[in-house]
Amino acid sequence: MKETIRRIKSMEMYFDMVTQAFSIDPLYVKTDTHIKGMLAALREYFEGGEWLEDYQSDERGELPSDLKRGVLSEDGLWNLMSDIDNMDNINE
What's the whole-number mean pLDDT along residues 47-70? Predict the structure, then answer.
């Protein structure tokens, strides 16, 4: 469980930073190497199955109640990635 909590904390930090960067300057998400790396890690987390495992752990009540878990919201991460992807489509 410690590894799960560590992973959620890391992904939560990435989620917050990418969300903030996107809200301030959407192009920054595509040009800053650090932010792009965090976004890539979030995509891998979501698409690789770890997000679902963590979400299910949360649904079963296995995570501490004081753990920040916005990255596990059903639509939060998906919406962020979709908004960033849609920005690409607008700029083409």
Answer: 95
